[in-house]
Amino acid sequence: MQKHTVDRIEALADEGAEITNSNFYDKWFAKASAFIGALLGPDALAQFSGLTALSSSEKHAMRVGHLQGLAAKLGIEEKQPPPTNSSPSISSDRLSWVTSPEARKVFVVHGHDNEAKQGTARFLERLGLQPIILHEQASSGRTIIEKFETYSGDIAFAVILLTPDDVGAAAKEAANLNKRARQNVIMELGYFMGRLGRGRVCALHKGDVELPSDYQGVLYIGMDDAGAWRAKLAQEFVQAKLPIDLTGLLGG
Q1: Residue 153 to residue 72: CA distance in whole angstroms
Q2: Domain count, the chain
Q3: Residue 220 β-bridge partners
């Protein structure tokens, strides 16, 4: 993959992130779709086009995030040395570094619900995984986006917490406000779909929160009071071949 191609995808993502007027969403989407389809083919275009949500702004945010994740993934593959028997490699379909430390890193995307964030992180630790929560990591003088790019670069899985932190509505139904996840959470959901692929992203939802429409196989799991979500999430880790300690399920 040529560097200028990655640069072009990043430029499209940056352009999309600067759009605040919904009248320009479709024009940007048409341009991005034409480029993705011509460069990466119909499967990649279908995945990008299939990102849907309950509002146009959330859908746009997910597509911008998806392009950002795709650019990051292609950039890493560009720099990756040829695989050997002793070093991990990254393919276009899945990460094959099961025995490496990175295989235990799980990025936790969250909103304002501290209970959901901490409960998820502690569960990951019981499974022998390493939760990566952005605000808990050292900044070292980096901006927030630079910090995000640094700590999301070598993870094996992303857990997205959709909690009812904001309210919103369609422009034609402005009085009918619904509980929604924060916009940064929606964008990062799209980012990790592009960065890791659908099989390594799982969205946990809590309470009465609007969910993005079912799209291209990303799994939603409800955070029920009985805790059944833990076993379901652990099953996703098993399917993704993360090295987990299943005795962590006994901790309740």
Answers
A1: 8
A2: 1
A3: 203
Name the residue with tokens 């990649």. 44
Residue 84 lies in a domain: no
Q: Letter for the amino acid at 130?
A: Q
In a 3-state reduction of DSSP, which class is residue 234? Answer: helix
Q: Which domain covers residue 114, as residue numbers?
A: 3-79+97-251
Report if residue 90 sits inside a domain.
Answer: no
Position 111, amino acid = G
CB of 6 closer than 8 Å to CB of 25: no
CB 106 within 8 A of CB 131: yes
On whether the CB atoms of residues 220 and 233 are closer than 8 A, the answer is: no
Decide the pairing of beta strands 105-109 and 130-132: parallel
Q: Are strands 157-162 and 201-205 parallel, antiparallel or unpaired?
A: parallel
pLDDT tens, per residue, the chain with 252 residues: 466 777 888 888 888 888 878 888 888 888 888 888 887 778 888 878 777 666 787 778 878 878 877 777 776 555 554 444 433 344 434 444 444 556 788 999 998 988 999 999 999 999 999 999 888 888 888 888 888 888 787 888 999 999 987 787 777 777 888 887 888 888 888 888 888 888 889 988 988 887 776 555 567 888 888 888 888 888 888 888 888 887 777 765
Beta strand extents in 67-200 (DSSP E only): 105-109, 130-132, 157-162, 166-168, 178-180
Q: Is there a domain that residue 89 lies in?
A: no
d(C-alpha 157, C-alpha 151), whole Å: 12
The Cβ-side half-sphere exposure at 148, using a 13 Å CA radius, reads 18
- Asked whether residue 88 is domain-assigned, the answer is no
